[in-house]
Specification:
Blueprint lengths: L1 H31 L23 H35 L7 H12 L3 H5 L2 H13 L2 H11 L3 H5 L5 H10 L4 H8 L3 H4 L5 H12 L2 H8 L12 H12 L5 H4 L5 H10 L2 H11 L10 H13 L2 H10 L4 H5 L5 H10 L3 H13 L2 H6 L1 H11 L9 H7 L12 H22 L1 H4 L3 H13 L6 H11 L13 H14 L10 H8 L2 H7 L3 H11 L6 H8 L2 H7 L6 H10 L1
Helix pairs in contact: 2-3, 2-5, 5-8, 8-11, 13-15, 15-17, 17-20, 20-23, 21-25, 25-28, 27-29, 28-30, 29-32, 32-35
Length: about 575
């Protein structure tokens, strides 16, 4: 312990000597450092403040202007309050003195319409005046505001006044449209003006005016311009507009379609890459749906995958749109990845089959999966729209293989749907055609549940007014079903004719012959090519017994039945 203490003492001493040396060195440096010259303190001279005397005339004028502004605001407030009170009265559905109040309002705002057009409350007053006023009163308001149309379009409240001009001033529509010319690209990107421009373009512009509105996207094109110059100008004007808010407006869909049709392969591929995730925004218009179809036809496998995935949660809406359902038909025609199509599109269709079958366009999508390009269900105009996608370079699988895979996926779903709705659909003119299509284009005996439910309806006690063979549409469907199965005698083992003979009592069959439509159903049974059906029905129906039950004047169906039986 003593040694350790001594060692520590020595160490401390050594450190202390070093510290002493460093202090001495610092002190010497300070001694030899030259002294700083002392600054002489100079007393600051106090500046005398100059006090300016106010100009009495100027102060008076400022005060007068201020008072004038306050008075003007108060006057405007009084006018606004008066107008709103009058508006509350004459906007009621039953207002006995509406014409008088309307004239008083016009007297107050005459020459000052622009002041009231941009305010949220008085703008509503003007809109109601446009609604209930006569043509002369409407024109008076329009004349005061026509030079401010573009400003009105950009205001949150006054844009509705421009809408009223379009509705109630048909003679001035041409002039209103002319105010938009040259300003379309700027207005389409404005939050408030874009919706109004879209309304004018879709609902009120004629063909000539639409062309004039979209001309701005093409730039100045002269005769003899080469194709790549036109494409370049279109790209320069369209590219800045490719965002979610602007892309939904139909006014840019036509220029976008023209660009895809004229552009080269690389330029088109670049544009498809920009559009592929946002095509859902385009599908509500004819040109927009054609843009989406171009992207599907000319897109790579990666582009197509992104496009299909972007449709997720929107498939039902797309299938029920007038123009959008064409895009799904193009998907079924071109995309080789049927697993992806089943997972994203068919699975969502399966969740909404009843609604789709009841809708004209949705039903067409389901029929295309069953029997694509069938001229019975798809007219020549539709087939011409779909034809450009045939033979595209990015589809490697044969069309037959692709259609077979989709058909096998959707057939069980449609059979179950149809079987559950036989009683309703068999009496409906449109849905009965869908029922017949399912029976005709689903192979094998999988249609048995549908035929079983049809026979259940035929087996009900006969009543001329309520029975299915007495229904105008129902008896026709039964006859067509009997005709369809004549062509599949060799490929099926379940037949409606067999089920009728085995399930419906003989006396019920004879009672069918008492009405014209029932007799025609029996004629179809007699002509059936299913084994033993014709012989059985002939044995049940004795012509001599039938003629005794009928009136002296045979109906057309009864006459045909007698002819076949004898």
């Amino acid at each position: 312990m003593v040694k350790k203490i001594r060692v520590r003492t020595k160490q401390k001493t050594g450190n202390a000597s070093k510290k002493g040396q460093s202090k001495d060195a610092t002190f010497k440096k300070r001694i030899h450092k030259p002294a700083r010259p002392m600054k002489r303190k100079v007393a600051k001279r106090k500046e005398s403040k100059v006090v300016l005397k106010p100009d009495k005339d100027k102060t008076a004028s400022v005060k007068k202007a201020h008072d004038s502004r306050i008075a003007h605001k108060l006057k405007q407030l009084d006018l606004t309050t008066t107008l709103v009170k009058m508006w509350e009265e004459f906007r009621k559905q039953k207002c006995p003195n509406r014409a008088e109040i309307l004239q008083n309002i016009l007297t107050i705002i005459r020459g000052r319409v622009r002041e009231f057009a941009f305010k949220h409350d008085t703008a509503r007053v003007l809109q109601t005046v446009m609604k209930y006023g006569n043509s002369k009163q409407r024109l008076a308001i329009y004349d005061e505001l026509k030079d401010s149309i573009l400003e009105l379009c950009k205001c949150k409240y006054s844009k509705f006044l421009v809408k009223k001009f379009l509705i109630y001033c048909p003679q001035q529509r041409e002039e209103i449209m002319s105010f938009f010319y040259g300003h379309v690209r700027r207005l389409i990107r404005h939050t408030e003006a874009a919706s109004l421009l879209e309304l004018a373009y879709n609902d009120y512009a004629n063909a000539h005016q639409r062309e004039a509105l979209t001309r701005e996207f093409y730039g100045v094109i002269t005769v003899g311009d080469e194709k790549h110059y036109k494409v370049k100008r279109l790209k320069e004007t369209i590219t800045p507009l490719l965002n979610k808010e602007t892309l939904k407006h139909s006014i840019i869909h036509k220029p976008l379609l023209d660009y895809l049709l004229m552009a080269g392969e690389q330029e088109r591929a670049d544009m498809i890459e920009q559009l592929r995730e946002r095509l859902v925004e385009l599908l509500h218009t004819k040109e927009g749906s054609r843009v989406a179809m171009q992207c599907i036809w000319h897109g790579t496998a990666k582009d197509r995958k992104v496009i299909v995935k972007s449709f997720k949660t929107f498939v039902k809406k797309i299938a029920m749109e007038e123009h959008g359902h064409y895009v799904l038909l193009a998907v079924f025609d071109c995309i080789d990845d049927t697993v992806l199509v089943k997972k994203v599109i068919i699975s969502e269709l399966a969740d909404n089959l009843s609604e789709l079958a009841a809708d004209r366009h949705g039903r067409r999508v389901l029929l295309y999966l069953l029997c694509p390009r069938n001229p019975v269900y798809f007219n020549s105009a539709m087939l011409r729209v779909l034809a450009p996608g045939d033979g595209n370079v990015h589809s490697k699988k044969s069309p037959e293989a692709r259609r077979s895979e989709l058909h096998s996926a959707v057939s069980p779903l449609l059979v179950k749907l149809t079987a559950d709705h036989v009683s309703d659909w068999i009496r409906d003119k449109q849905l009965s055609q869908f029922l017949l299509a399912v029976v005709q284009h689903v192979e094998g005996d999988s249609v048995a549940p549908i035929l079983e439910n049809v026979v259940n309806l035929l087996d009900e006690p006969f009543d001329e007014e309520t029975h299915i063979v007495g229904d105008a549409c129902g008896h026709s469907v039964v006859r067509k079903l009997l005709s369809i199965e004549n062509n599949r005698v060799d490929t099926s083992s379940v037949f409606l004719a067999d089920l009728i003979i085995n399930r419906v009592p003989e006396n019920e069959l004879r009672s069918w012959a008492t009405i014209n439509r029932g007799a025609f159903v029996l004629v179809s049974l007699v002509a059936s090519q299913v084994k033993d059906v014709s012989e059985t029905i002939r044995s049940v129906l004795d012509p001599s017994v039938l003629t005794e039950q009928w009136n002296t004047d045979h109906l057309q169906g009864q006459a045909a039945l007698l002819k076949d039986l004898t």
